[in-house]
Amino acid sequence: MAKKVTKKVTKKETKKEKIDKSKKLIQALKNHGAQIYEDLENGEFPKFSIPNRSISNIIYDKKLRQYVLGTNASLRSARNSSQLRSFTQLLWLAFFANKLTHEKKSSTLRDVYYSSQAFAVDFEDQQESDNIIVDLEAVLSQPREDFFVFPEERSSIFGDLTIEYTIPGYEGKTQNLSSHPDGYAIGPSMTSAQLTDTSAEMVIAIEKGGLFTRFVEEQVDKKFKSIIINTGGQAPRSTRTLLKRLHDELGLPVVILTDGDVYGEHIAMVIKSGSANAAHLRELTVPDAKWMGVWATDIDKFKLPTIPMTESDIKRCYDLLKDPRYEEGLWKRELEVFIKIKRKAELEAFSKYGLTNITEKYLPKKLEESKSF
Amino acid sequence: MAKKVTKKVTKKETKKEKIDKSKKLIQALKNHGAQIYEDLENGEFPKFSIPNRSISNIIYDKKLRQYVLGTNASLRSARNSSQLRSFTQLLWLAFFANKLTHEKKSSTLRDVYYSSQAFAVDFEDQQESDNIIVDLEAVLSQPREDFFVFPEERSSIFGDLTIEYTIPGYEGKTQNLSSHPDGYAIGPSMTSAQLTDTSAEMVIAIEKGGLFTRFVEEQVDKKFKSIIINTGGQAPRSTRTLLKRLHDELGLPVVILTDGDVYGEHIAMVIKSGSANAAHLRELTVPDAKWMGVWATDIDKFKLPTIPMTESDIKRCYDLLKDPRYEEGLWKRELEVFIKIKRKAELEAFSKYGLTNITEKYLPKKLEESKSF
């Protein structure tokens, strides 16, 4: 039997990091607020400098292996009457973010939209308030989760990982994530927890809940010393944050298992290198993450039952080929095979060879292979 | 301080019930199999008798307060060449259900579709295999969850409830569901667990994850002695099963909180009395469950910000008015108000009055009111 390797993280370090993050955020908000006051006292129109998020300022950084914003920024000033509305909205949001962070109360994108109405701050619709939230992220270079604005989606996690909560009422309480086989929801308390202890040697992210359950039942966590994460389709940002933390703080490699289609390939890519939408943030990517499958080339290799690709599937392949991240290697090769075979296969397709075929045959083979790419 | 009332359920009873359920299912499958052999030995064509699930055989049972199937049944026989295909499919599924139940391996609707291919049983698409699964449910009068076929959707639960797992590898292990504030996923291990202990006096089901998190943060579980469930929109069947068990086994009243629109009203109705689609089952309803809000009449009463209803929202109201369950009382009244005001309001709309308005003002008021309807 293999020796159990336990990784223990120095608690003080992560705790400090967490506190620093909140402190850093509140300090940044304070600085921006002080600047506004200063402008007013000097008889000037108050303003924000906002990094430009338009396509022309989004650059793929090959060294960082993710999209980043260029150096262009624009001024949003109360002097310009056409900017007065969005200036006020942003100022209010900074105030509200400060309030949420101080009170440690989580909210959603939808909540922010409605909360603004209490202050007679007018947003046409949620699209408008969502945009201002992204502006504030760009101004602060911190994701909205840091100021307690969360999405609706949930995904879940299972495996031998002990966490220690930091949210009010739960500080210092610990939880081992191998004790509920249906999985633990990944929400504010999970992403803000300290990751204190694990015997796992890798993280396996899976696109689908049904497979997640299969993996738990087949004890993939024990057999492959892994933490299993159900991304529930495209991984929500809080899940990507957690994946990054598992990689960076615990040094765990991350492998990704998706359906064998262009959307699956892109789910893996977004975990690895982010989306252009979040080019203004750097906390959501795991550049070393590996897409383990299902590859287009696996379809033939493992004789999987397939479904024909639709016109829009094929168009999506051609679109991605123009993305700099798909310009070479595995990513390009697999897209080209999809285009050639015009067929796709789901994770459940392995069930043709028995329910445990995916965990007993496919997974070990691909894990072995993944050491070399 | 109020005295903590703890409900303890006799373990042996629920365990016995659970075992009986699996035994009952396996026995029923065995009987059907034996009948097929007998037919063959007698030189007859083998057959199944399948309760008719067409609209004409779906009746609203006012006493049971749910849809049920009438007494019409049809014979599916190997004699009839047009039925040979669906007869074979059903026979295979019965074999596969038996295998899953014996091995306690969970699968999904999608898995069943692919698994059939290992046996050269042909399904055109998943729609066809889904239909056969419903046929088998009707034949057995047991939901597919009993033979380990689960959906993809997940919802989650939080509160002072201790469960004891019955799935392999976890038998006898207990879990208290108040220890992970992001919630525990409701999957096979949760729905099959014994519900052993709780101090809660009610269950609050909420339509949205964001509100679920709010309720946990505001300690609604403690302040209102409740178990909180996030249905994630329309409640998945496994969640409805759990709601029923919390009501029936622990005697807990169930209240439901949805968006203030016709879809929210129907989410509550489906938890209460099921859907016509599941008229062949009786294990998924909580007839005593109460829809606490957001009512159409609450919109004006609580001065909520609203969104205009679309044409299709309004059409949906008129459609539901034809449903026998919406013929009277609260259900009819609220639909009529929606039609009159042509506006709807979401749960997040309360944020206009502060993030805690919903838990501090609305919830206590409606809980008090709900005692009288």
Automatic annotation (TrEMBL), chains A, B:
Residues annotated as the enzyme's active site: Y114
> According to the UniProt entry, what is the EC number of this protein?
5.6.2.2
Keywords associated with the record: ATP-binding, DNA-binding, Isomerase, Magnesium, Metal-binding, Nucleotide-binding, Topoisomerase
GO MF, any single term:
magnesium ion binding
Question: Quick check: keyword Protein biosynthesis in the entry?
Answer: no
Cofactor dependence is on: Mg(2+)
Q: Where is the Spo11/DNA topoisomerase VI subunit A N-terminal domain?
A: 85-148
Query: Is Cytoplasm among this UniProt entry's keywords?
Result: no
Superkingdom field: Archaea
Q: Give the Topoisomerase 6 subunit A/Spo11 TOPRIM domain ranges.
A: 202-367
Residues binding Mg(2+) are: E207, D259
Q: Which spans are transmembrane here?
A: none
GO cellular component assignments: chromosome
InterPro entries, from UniProt?
Answer: Spo11/TopoVI_A, Spo11/TopoVI_A_N, Spo11/TopoVI_A_sf, TopoVI_A, TOPRIM_Topo6A/Spo11, WH-like_DNA-bd_sf
State the Gene Ontology BP annotations. DNA replication; DNA topological change
Q: What class of enzyme is it?
A: isomerase
Which reaction(s) are listed as its catalytic activity?
ATP-dependent breakage, passage and rejoining of double-stranded DNA
Report the sequence similarity comment from the record: Belongs to the TOP6A family.
Q: What does this protein do?
A: Relaxes both positive and negative superturns and exhibits a strong decatenase activity.
| Summary of subunit composition and partner proteins | Homodimer. Heterotetramer of two Top6A and two Top6B chains.
What is this protein identified as?
A: Type 2 DNA topoisomerase 6 subunit A
Organism of this sequence: Candidatus Nitrosopelagicus brevis
